[in-house]
Design goal:
heterodimer, A: 253 residues, alpha+beta, Herpes Virus-1, 3 domains, three-stranded antiparallel β-sheet, two-stranded antiparallel sheet, 6 helices, 9% strand, B: 161 residues, Ubiquitin Conjugating Enzyme, four-stranded antiparallel β-sheet, 4 strands, globular
Chain lengths: 253, 161
């Protein structure tokens, strides 16, 4: 069973046509491959064709040295885009100074920012030999700390002071009886937020880190959640759920 | 013959060829005003006609620039000279060599033939006197064996013209 559609859509000043293959036909890899290939060719032609008035969209992503679509793209603090091999050769072989070729701002190599698009992430860049001898690997991105956890769990501080960090450590040390009141809102809360964002789960490359920071403040509905916040919340809620079950069991017995 | 004949005539690298083709395409679509590229099939040597800008002492005069590209352009600057007769200018020698920093020490691979042309036209336009550099005769004598201006140790001192 195979469903074909001719898709047409306009991009700023060009029209793309390509065959879209419905998910059913994914069982036929050969056909799927052809359709992807076709789409790619259309795009490649668009980007290399002469443009009206010398302005073009692909030019925004061209290396300022070789004028090709940037390979191993890297951007300076002053915002100028280059291929890493081009910039490396300029800075280390041909130039007398460490200046940006475009604006002459001083370039510090440790402050260069690599651009990681979606395109080439499948291949390990180290496996790709760069023909011009000893060009080192492109500098890695600097990853700032993730956003701090949101404050959704502060009600714990509210109800019973010292009990807050239970999620990480003091599970066994329970002052149980007063806890029930506080638990059920959290279970409700789980339904609202907890499994709210399943798509982000697998993409998250760094495992959840558990900080034991719970700030004082009101328990309110958080509009903004970081991805990590979700993971922490989920974990906390799982703990709470287990704890509630445990409580119910204790009561029954 | 001019000094350019000695410039390295190694064939252009692949990167250089690709980039020059792009520059040529862009030039054909949107040439810098006041310049005409004389069409040849030689990508490595461009001859460009310069029209003196209106309202300057070079108005209605035409000159020719010869641009030779090295093998590893744009990492290295092209060699740019005026074909005789070179305009009378305090920074242009009678053998066509141009004392302009971006052609030598201040070259950057982000520059293009178009941007060089505009710089040269700007240099011409800001001149108020038609005269040769002070050391013209001495310099030209030194260059007699067809030395390239890129081998000169230039001393850039005048930022007014």
């Amino acid at each position: 069973m195979m469903l074909l559609k001719l898709v047409q859509f306009t991009y700023p000043n060009s029209v793309y046509h390509f065959v879209s293959v419905d998910s059913l036909s994914l069982t036929n890899p050969k056909f799927n491959f052809n359709s992807i290939h076709f789409t790619f060719k259309v795009r490649a032609r668009e980007s290399s064709s002469p443009r009206d008035g010398g302005s073009n969209d692909a030019g925004d992503f061209e290396c300022n040295i070789c004028f090709e679509l940037a390979e191993d793209p890297i951007v300076t603090l002053c915002g100028h885009l280059f291929c890493w091999p081009c910039l490396y050769k300029w800075l280390h072989i041909h130039s007398h100074s460490h200046e940006c070729p475009v604006c002459k701002a001083l370039i510090q190599e440790e402050k260069l920012i690599p651009l990681y698009g979606r395109g080439k992430t499948q291949t390990d860049p180290r496996s790709k030999p760069i023909p011009d001898l000893e060009i080192p690997h492109r500098p890695a991105g600097q990853r700032p700390a993730t956003a701090p956890a949101p404050d959704t769990n502060n009600f714990l501080n509210f109800g019973f002071g010292g009990f807050a960090p239970m999620a990480s450590a003091r599970f066994g040390n329970f002052a149980v009886s007063s806890g029930i009141g506080g638990l059920f809102p959290s279970l409700l809360d789980m339904n609202v937020h907890g499994f709210h964002n399943p798509l982000y789960g697998p993409r998250h490359a760094y495992g959840p880190r558990f900080s034991s920071r719970f700030h004082g403040g009101h328990h309110g509905h958080e509009i903004f959640h970081s991805r990590r916040g979700h993971q922490e919340n989920n974990l906390l809620k799982t703990f709470l759920l287990m704890f509630a079950i445990f409580l119910v069991l204790v009561m029954i017995l | 013959m001019t000094a350019s004949s000695v410039s390295s005539r190694k064939v252009l690298s692949k990167i250089a060829t690709n980039r020059l083709q792009k520059e040529l395409t862009e030039w054909q679509i949107n040439p810098p005003s006041g310049f005409t590229h004389k069409v040849t099939d030689n990508l490595q040597r461009w001859v460009i006609e310069v029209n003196g800008a209106q309202g300057t002492i070079y108005a209605n005069e035409k000159y020719q620039l010869q641009v030779d590209f090295p093998e590893n352009y744009p990492m290295e600057a092209p060699q740019v000279i005026f074909l005789p007769p070179a305009p009378l200018h305090p920074h242009i020698y009678s053998n066509g060599h141009i004392c302009l920093d971006i052609l030598y020490d201040s070259w950057s691979p982000a520059m293009t033939v178009g941007s060089i042309c505009i710089s040269i036209l700007s240099m011409l336009s800001s001149s108020t006197v038609k005269e040769r550099p002070e050391d013209n005769d001495r310099y030209v004598k030194n260059c007699r064996n067809g030395r390239s201006p890129k081998e000169t140790r230039w001393w850039f001192h005048d930022d007014k013209v």
